[in-house]
C-alpha cells in the first residue's frame, strides 16, 4: 500500500464511520496477517485506514510541530511514501513529545506527553496490531482501554465482590506509574510475543523519544508518556503480570489502567495483602506503591474511578471528590460577574451536566444528586436575581408571586444567595421552570 493511505478515497472514509463497524469489517481481513504482530501488519492498508479514522475521531492538541489533526490527511497524501520507506528501512525517528502539566484535585499535577499527530497515527496503527495479539492474554478483571470494557464494568465488579462479603479494600496507588515503567522489562515482555525486530525497534524508539519542555529536550530513560495511543496498551501489558499474580493468589480485584482495588474479608487480611503485593511490585515490576495514597480501609471510605459505595456496600455512590469537582465547574459557569445571557448559561450548564451524567448516571444513592440539583437552581436564582436588578418586584409579579411576597423580597436587605431560598424566588423560578429552559436534573433517571 505505497500511496493508498494518502488517497482521496481514504480521506473520505476517515470521517463519520463508527469504530465498531470498521473494526468488525477489518478484523476478518487482518487476522491472518496480525496473528503474528509485525511491521507488515502495522503498515497494512486496512489497519492504516482504521488508525487514521481513530486519530481524527480522538482529535487532540498539536505536538511540537504544530500540525493539527485536520491537516494530517493532506500531509499523508504528500509525504506517506517517504514515511513508509523510512519505517520499512528502520530510518524513521519519532519526534519528541510536548509536555504539558494537568492540575490534579489534590493540588499536584500530572504530566501529559502530546506526540505529533503523525506519531499518534503511527502509534495507533501499532496499538491496533498489538491489541489483537495481546487481548486474549489479558485478565478478565482488567477493564481499562480494552475493547468492550469500561470503567463502569470495573466499578460494578468491585461492587459485586463487596456485596458477597468482601468488606475491606486494599487500595493500591502506583506512584507515578506511567513515568516509572521499566523499559527493559517491558521490551523483554514484548519480545516474548513479538518476533519482528523492525517493529520492536520502532516501539523502543517511541519509548526513548525525548520530552520537550519549553526550549529544553529531556531524554526518556523510563516510563511511557501519557497522551499517546500506544501508552495505555503498553501499561496493560506491564500490569497484566500483576493481574495474573493476584489471580494465582486467589484475590478478588478490579483494575482500570493503574487504578487497582483488591477486596478482602478482614482488615488483617488486607494488611497482609498490602505488604506482600507492595514487595512483589517492587521486586518484580520495579514499581513503587505510594504509602500516602494507598490504604487498607472500608470501601465506603475510599474512591474508585470516581465512585464509592454506601456504608452497607450495596449501592454505588458518587465520591465526594467528584461532587466537589462538579461544584467547582458549576461555580465557574454561574459566576454572577460573567455578564452572559441566561440562555447561554443554561446551554453551558446543560452540556457540562449531561456529560457528567453520562458517566456518573449509574450512581444508586440519589440524595447527594438531589442536593446538588437544588444547589444548582439556587445558583441560577442568584444569577437571575442579580440580572433583574431594580425590576425584581415586577419580574416576580409576572411569574405569579403575591404582592406581599414580591414586595418583601424585592425590598429585602439580604443578598442574592439568601434570597434565592425564599418562597417568592422558589415559586417564580421553580424546578419545572428550569427544566423547561433545558436544565437537566442529575437525580432524574433516564427512561
Tally of alpha and pi helices: 20
Q: Strand order, main sheet: write it out.
A: 2-1-4-5
Low-confidence stretches: 1-27, 29-35
Q: Give the helix level as a range of percent.
A: 40-55%
Structure description:
There is one protein chain. The strands form 3 sheets. The chain has a 4-stranded mixed beta sheet, with no helix packed on it. A 4-stranded antiparallel beta sheet has the order 6-7-3-8, with helices on both faces. It has helices spanning 8-13, 19-34, 39-42, 45-58, 72-89, 117-134, 151-163, 177-180, 183-191, 197-208, 231-248, 267-285, 320-333, 342-360, 367-388, 392-398, 403-410, 416-419, 423-428, 431-437, and strands at residues 97-103, 109-114, 168-173, 211-213, 216-218, 252-256, 259-264, 295-297, 307-309, 316-318. It contains 20 helices and 10 strands. 53% of the residues lie in helices and 10% in strands. Mean pLDDT is 89; it is low at 1-27 and 29-35. The relative contact order is 0.08. The chain is globular and about 85 Å long. With 447 residues, the chain is of the alpha+beta class.
